[in-house]
Amino acid sequence: MFRVIVAGCGSIVNKWMANALKREDVEIVALADPFPENAKALAARYALSLPIFADVEKAIAQGNANLMFDTTPPAVHEAVVVAGLRAGLDVFGEKPMTDQMDSAHRMVAAAEASGKRYFLMQNRRYLHGIRTLRRLIEQGAVGKPYHVSVDMLLGAHFTGFRNQMDHPLIVDMSIHTFDEARYLLSDAKAVSCYCQEYNPPHSWYKGDGGADCIFEMSDGSVLNFRGSWVSRSENTSAHGSWSVSCGEGAACWDGYRKVWLNEAQPVPPGAGYFEEEGLRREIALDTAGREEHDGCLDDMFRALLAGESMQTDCRNNIHSLAMVHAAVESSASGRKVLL
What we know:
This protein is an alpha/beta fold and 339 residues long. It is built from nine helices and 15 strands. The strands form two sheets. The protein has a nine-stranded mixed beta sheet, with helices on one face. The two termini are 41 Å apart.
């Protein structure tokens, strides 16, 4: 039986609660939030009668739990996660792991020292579109990838903290896209990054709302990311528009429900000049498993029950986080950064 402490009772936790409360092997045993009104509202929403704590460590001491959901703000993830791990709890946590790389390394070290699992919520790995695209790449449908191009262009109007952030696009959103790119490339790591941020005159953000990044990856491929939260037209899906160039063509996903291959065709012998055009073929989506938060949580619970690791384990996810911080460093310095 999974006995769960929920740490952090803001809006994002509702997706976690909806999944957990449908499982027969999960019991929510305590809620923790420094603002008790948040926890009380959450308990009322789901008709739960259980202890509420303002302090996570007190919840751990009295909650008789073996699992924690960390849905607190990134700046306090380290304190919450490390407290849980040291007390012998496994932890499922919201992305990003934390807001500082040295903090992330301490969290991974705490997981290794405790022998417990710390898995991150990277829900976009569980979209049917990107899972179909990865399967095609793994199967070598159009050869070995050498270049990944992704455009994520939106006119994203928020209220609250994002409008005042120094790097709203890179720090708040790009972990999704960078992690998806690593997923497509069999979890290759970035080895270098060049990033240029910008903020056009019409921007409604204090910090830079757009960025272009180039990453060299450990498998020899190159990732090109063009992102904007201040686009005024020709917007993409929030999941981006993807093209993976390979030795025998390209594999593509529109960020919605369409995946296709563009297969290279033979070059006519003796042609003085010839421009190649591939043969485009749409691919049916692989719809196995649930999507987004449900898919990721299902995999987290499966891994714990099997005594296994899984793809969003902190030891893997830290390499996606490193890409975010490398992009910020490169943008600030104006230079390529080595990871």
